[in-house]
Amino acid sequence: MYLWNYNKSIELFFDRTNKRKLWVTFVQCSAIKNVNFPLGGDGVGKFSINSSSGVISALPGLDRETKDDYYLSITGQDGGTPPLTGLCGVRVFISDTNDNKPVFSPTLYLTSISEATPPGTDVIPVQASDVDIGVNAEIEFSIVGGDVKKQFQVRLPETILKKQRGN
Fold first, then answer.
1. Average pLDDT over all residues of the chain
2. 138 and 65 in a common domain
């Protein structure tokens, strides 16, 4: 059984139950027997701790888009007489999972062009965003319907639909 004092090294844990990566920062491990571990801090209700082993587990409902890190305060109290206590902090960083879809703004685009519009002319800019981060927020645009004659294409990175040449 170990009691960790907060500060230096970083280790990565993967909570298989909730399929979330947990980054925990801590240092200085010391072996302690017969210790209970009450949990405090802003992670109460989001994490639990086994009061005899000190193992911290994530509870359902973590959402990086709502809160991306938590500070847990842990008190270790032994069973001696008199009981002795120690305090440590654990900071947990919540990594992103691809749990949000891109959202277009607006959700419907209306425009018109003349049939005489020259090929290569920009038609309309489209925009979408994703509240995830990193590669989970990268958006690739494509036309998936309504352009039977393949007269339009998406120009990146500006994401502007444009009329194809010669069609």
1. 78
2. no
